[in-house]
Amino acid sequence: MTVRIRTAVRVEGIVQGVGFRPFVHGLATRLGLGGLVGNDADGVFAEIEGDPAAVARFLVLLEREPPPLARIDKVTTREVAPAGSAAFAIAPSPAGGRSRRALVSADTATCADCLAELADRGDRRYEYPFINCTNCGPRFTIITDVPYDRAATTMAGFEMCALCAAEYHDPADRRFHAQPTCCPACGPRLRLLTSDGTPVPGPPGSGPIAAAAGLLRAGQVLAVKGLGGYHLAADAGSAAAAAALRQRKHREDKPFAVMVADVAAARRLCAVSDAAADLLASARRPIVLLPRRPAEAGSAAVAPAVAPGNRQLGVMLPYTPLHHLLLRELAGPMILTSGNVSDEPIAFTDADARQRLAGIADAVLAHDRAIHIRTDDSVVRVFRGGAAVLRRSRGYVPEPLPVPVTFGRPVLACGAELKSTFCLGTRGHAFVSHHIGDLENAETLRSFTEGIEHFRRLFDIEPQVIAHDLHPDYLSTAHAARLAAQSGAELIGVQHHHAHIASCLADNGERGPVIGVAFDGTGYGPDGTIWGGEFLIADLAGYRRAAHLEPVPMPGGAAAIRQPWRMAASYLAAAYPGGAGRAGLAVAARNERAWGTITAMAERGINAPLTSSAGRLFDAVAALLGVRDAISYEGQAAIELEQLADPAEPGGYWAAADGGEPLRIAAAGLVRAAADDLAAGVSAPVIAARFHNGVAALIEGTCVTLRERCGLDTVALSGGVFQNLLLADRVVSALAGRGFRVLTHQRVPCNDGGISLGQAVIAASRAPQPGPG
Ligand SMILES: [Zn+2]
Ligand SMILES: [Zn+2]
To answer: 3-state DSSP call for residue 115?
Structure first.
């Protein structure tokens, strides 16, 4: 007599839309087991029946060999009565669902199998720019609702042809239940249009891609519809095309990213480490910031106007079949930058693209598959051998991040203002949103509020706690208050730099306490000053301000952010009280007309809020050295100061601290040393390097003092200033040399894009847990 058992299995995680049911079907069939598998609102359920040893084997292999895009969070089993099933079946999806807990996967680069078909003349999807399968293609950007099914995607309007339907229904096929399955007979179509919407005729016998590549080669600017929005494309080798794009986009200086065919092509432009190569070629396909090779004689692969004056270049590999086909035709690097004018959000609907990009693009390569959610390209770099995300969006979102807390009550965290994201937390999951942009105009605000609604629906989260920045004027703060008033949720205000440190802790799976170093441009301080050069003794629940940069006036308030020379005037006034010793500086001569007024504003504190911001300190030195008196994008002066610095220079400046509680650090000492060196004829690259080394030494020295005071030997680094590679590297080396354990960001940005995660875990740590019953 043979013993048969039947085990009910539930799998949670990213298990829908990733080929999980055919995988289970194949595994069970291979092991001679009967039963069924299906999707429901919680994930995948299965019942497995047969010989006990084979059932046990099944459970081992289930977790050991899942499909490439799956991520199993949890498997639970229970024994049920055998039903005599000999065969294995795929159960139909139940309509509706009690809870929408199944996770949605991120958009994924075209897989190797699909690329092989794309290049195969005999395949019915030969050169079809929308080829995809269970293992690749659009996901998050086309999903309109859950459970994930074709009807709940923007592919709903495309009825599958008989051949596609057969593949879709065959459990042995790579396209089994791949929701975006399509082919040239039944799927989306590509069109090349002029900016007013009329079709562009290509050369006889060639399709829109060849015609589009021809326009790029002729130096024209093309709008290209991608996965998460429109890009603007141009031939990266053409100085004229790059300059035209810059001028029409009103983007004077910010570097453009380029797309190249493969890792070998990336290596021709940049130094690519193994870690960077893995990131480039990963299924997430982010923009990877890479150190540029020195321009070789005769090599004009990338025109200087693509990333002027920058040691780094943002490079990505093709991630849609359309990109692959277009790059093959162009046969060289292609500028691929977000489809927008200056700082607006990228265009993602066809009507919006026609309207907003008409003045920029000479032609539009579009298609009729709608984008439901706008997502920008993600940006990543390698820092000390590991990946560090600077912008987390397409390819990463909406995968939940594991966090070191449990959300006893569901939390919505509304983030800050610049590089805005929001975060929804439930149980052990934190869903950090895609990069929304700077919450400064109606369009971004709409993305933000609609994004929150979309995430709430997708993940079935009804927030009972809403966290926000303390800044009363942020649009995110106002939205938090509005939502709380509507829903009755509890509001929790979180200090900006505490959120930065909590974000870094959560990113590393830690709870603290640590010495948190939060250096950035701006954050609301509870004492009425603007913070941004902060040392906090912090854990997830609370913080104490243990040290900070000595506040200096910001003459004219926000105007001092746009005009770094005002910060030079302010810092010089602090560095040379009474005005002695600062005569004859070029920055004063360049701004002669207003210099006296601005200095007086700083000295008398008229319309000059106090700030301890590290970002403003970098601005002051950048202006002092003649790098830049006014900026066209956030952080520009500091970024250019970093590029100027001579990495070989070992010397550094020194800033004194007062020994108080909190410790106050007189960063004006760094500015005075820089001004003295400048007057003595020391070169700007050497001064810039000595300044960086001085800031690193200031952080090192302060952490040592705080360790003596509080006994903590772990330091968490956060805030946008640590995007500065030179500084971050020097600080980590110096702290490690002093025996500190140093935490830096990896999965969420150190800039304000990480704030929402920090707010969420702080709210979870502070909010009372629900009582029993
Ligand atoms: Zn594929
Ligand atoms: Zn078809």
So the answer is: helix
Ligand nearest to the CA of 178: 1
Residue corresponding to tokens 């807390």: 405
The contacts of residue 108 (CB under 8 Å, 6+ apart) are: 69, 135, 136, 137, 139, 283, 284, 395
Question: Which ligand has the minimum distance to the alpha carbon of residue 116?
Answer: 1
Percent of the chain with pLDDT over 70: 96
Q: CB–CB of 692/730 below 8 Å?
A: yes
Q: What is the tens place of the pLDDT at every residue in 474-503? A: 999 999 999 999 999 999 999 999 999 999
Å from CA of 163 to ligand 2 middle: 6
CA–CA distance, 132 with 622 (Å, rounded to integer): 48
Q: Is the pLDDT of residue 737 over 80?
A: yes
Q: What is the pLDDT of residues 139-175, one digit of tens each?
A: 999 999 877 788 899 999 999 999 999 999 988 899 9
Q: Which of 95, 94, 7 is nearest to 51 (CA)?
A: 7
Beta bridge mates, 366: 191
Residues 71, 13 contacting (CB under 8 angstroms) = yes
What does DSSP assign to residue 662? S
The residues placing their C-beta within 5 Å of ligand 2, an ion, are 161, 164, 183, 185-186
**41 alpha-carbon distance from chain centroid:** 28
- Position 519, amino acid: F
**Ligand 1 centre and the CA of 491: distance in Å?**
44
Query: Residue 547 Cα, ligand 2 centroid: separation in angstroms?
Result: 64
Q: Can you give the pLDDT at residue 771?
A: 45
Q: Copy the structure tokens of residue 128.
A: 């079809």
- Looking at all shown ligands, the one closest to residue 110's CA atom is 1
